[in-house]
Design brief:
By secondary structure, the chain is an alpha+beta fold. The chain has two domains: 3-182 and 401-483, 3-Layer(aba) Sandwich (Aminopeptidase), CATH 3.40.630.10; 184-394, Alpha-Beta Plaits (2-Layer Sandwich). Helices cover 29% and strands 27% of the residues. It contains eleven helices and 23 strands. It has helices spanning 11-20, 31-43, 115-129, 151-154, 228-240, 273-290, 316-328, 371-387, 408-421, 435-442, 468-483; strands at 47-50, 56-60, 72-77, 99-102, 105-108, 138-143, 165-168, 176-181, 183-192, 195-197, 202-210, 245-251, 262-269, 299-304, 312-314, 332-336, 344-355, 359-368, 391-394, 426-430, 447-450, 455-456, 464-466. Helix 1 crosses helix 3 (115-129), helix 5 (228-240) runs antiparallel to helix 6 and helix 9 (408-421) crosses helix 11 (468-483). The two termini are 36 Å apart. The mean pLDDT is 95.
């Protein structure tokens, strides 16, 4: 066992956590960890199976006297995010994770720790191995490729899981029970590019939006932060009124992020360059004032560029269609949950815009914990794009998990936590994706709740697992299994 794990309780959980930390298991590279989990199960005399996509299910019989209790599935994912500091020498295809202890946290030496979701795998293996526990029949579902698109869960087959109750062990805040998550879809609009030569007596300006915070398009969408694409469009519409012609526009780089930066090259009549520069300066002041509380570092600038030969600009009608589409596209919170105070139920994010020699592409993402609202929102966005002349494509996406505050397993979990720790757990939902949404769609009627120990800075080399919360997580997990009858 790693020196950093010695003396920590519960010993069986840390034993397995140490073992799996030696096994490379980045998304798409789960064969070794799946083989290890299956090997442990078979070594304990348990039934294990693996589907064609790589997901693993293991069954453990009930303890004596609990054979008639409902079967419960414990679920986590086998893969981890592979990130390291630039100066760290580490091969994620063969090197083990180097665990270090700092105060009351565990970290890795310059890489991600993999507690997301290695702690769920370790807890599952520990429950398989411990013959002293009281519980009904158990299943353990370990999915693959969660971190890059939830694709393991998406490919679960009917009948692969038998349970009607599921404990997802992939939440990151001890003392909280998660009962819902958003689903998501992408709506993409594409315009075939039509160009004119840049008009004579026009000068190029580089328009730039910088300094925004951006953030996760689900978790930070309710913060009111600026969207660089929406902001630059207001500037471009003002320059359009001065006869400006757009040569290019580029903004955003991730579908699940609020865009922080955007640039556009605009040719304006040379006689109106001074007016254009002052217009952008005025808009900079106006836009900064609008969002100064949440995005105080916003900067909107215009810079004169050296003219180039044979420059192409968008045809006037295409430019008009694009600017009006961007103006019409919604961005931000569309609806708050009536069940969970403070929870965003439905949102849309104007994420990316790119121009090339052949097309303009605008990528948006819709999220909701109510699947029908995702459909409504994506068609709203798509309709605006189509009215603006774009061809629209919708992604397959993933489903949401609508909170059910009358859930049987939620009631059992709440009462168990209250009796064990003398206080009620927080009931929460997250405006981001969890595998529960997909599992609930694959297995209708599945009663689910999600919880885990406290982690921070996941998906980065600063990932932290607060090991003092693992003992409470473990005790709570065993308490739930004991209470389900």
């Amino acid at each position: 066992m790693s020196e950093a794990l010695k003396g920590l309780e519960p010993q069986l959980v840390w034993k397995y956590f140490g073992e799996i930390s030696k096994i490379p298991r980045g998304s798409g590279n789960e064969k070794q960890i799946a083989a290890y989990v299956i090997g442990v199960a078979k070594g304990l005399g348990l039934e294990a199976k693996q589907d064609t996509f790589g997901n693993v299910v293991i069954q453990k019989p009930a303890s004596a006297g609990r054979e008639r209790s409902p079967m419960v599935c414990l679920q986590g994912h086998l893969d981890m995010v592979n990130e390291k500091n630039k100066d760290k020498v580490h091969d994620f295809l063969k090197d083990p994770i180097e665990i270090v202890r700092k105060g009351n946290v565990l970290m890795a030496n310059g890489t991600t720790l993999g507690a997301d979701n290695g702690i769920a795998v370790a807890a599952g293996l520990a429950i398989m191995a411990d013959k002293s526990l009281e519980h009904g029949p158990l299943e353990f579902l370990f999915t693959v490729d969660e971190e890059t698109g939830l694709t393991g869960a998406k490919n679960l087959e009917p009948g692969f899981v038998k349970s009607k109750t599921l404990l997802n062990l992939d939440s990151e805040e001890e003392g909280s029970l998660y009962v819902g998550c958003s689903g998501g879809r992408d709506t993409v609009g594409r315009w075939k590019v039509a160009f004119d030569n840049a008009p004579a007596k026009h000068a190029p300006l580089l328009i730039a939006v910088r300094g925004l915070k951006g953030g996760h398009s689900g978790l930070e969408i309710d913060k009111g932060r600026g969207n660089s694409i929406k902001i630059i469009n207001r500037v471009l519409m003002a320059l359009d009124g001065l006869g400006g012609r757009i040569a290019s526009i580029e903004g955003g780089n991730k579908r699940n992020a609020i865009p922080r930066e955007c640039e556009s090259v605009v040719y304006v009549p040379t006689s109106k360059v001074s007016k254009a520069l002052s217009t952008v300066a005025e808009l900079n002041d106006v836009l900064r004032a609008e969002i100064s509380t949440v995005d105080p570092e916003l900067r909107v600038s215009a810079e004169e560029m050296k003219p180039k030969k044979k420059v192409k600009v968008l045809k006037k009608n295409l430019q008009a269609q694009l600017l009006r589409t961007l103006a019409g596209l919604p961005h931000g919170v569309m609806k708050m949950s009536a069940d969970i105070p403070g929870l965003v139920e439905t949102s849309t994010n104007l994420a990316i815009i790119t121009t090339s020699a052949t097309k303009i592409e605008v990528i948006t993402t819709q999220r909701s914990s109510v699947n029908s609202e995702i459909e409504e929102m994506k068609y709203t966005v798509g309709a605006i794009m189509e009215l603006g002349g774009a061809k629209v494509k919708y992604s397959a996406g993933y489903p949401g998990w609508k909170p059910n505050l009358n859930s049987t397993i939620l009631k059992s979990a709440k009462s168990t936590y209250q009796s064990m720790f003398g206080k009620e757990p927080a009931i929460k939902a997250i405006h981001a994706g969890l595998e529960c949404g997909i599992i609930g769609e694959k297995y209708p009627g599945m009663d689910m709740v999600s919880f885990g120990p406290t982690l921070a800075d996941v998906h980065s080399p600063d990932e932290k697992l607060y090991f003092d919360t693992v003992g409470k997580f473990w005790k709570f997990l065993l308490g739930i299994l004991k209470s389900v009858r």
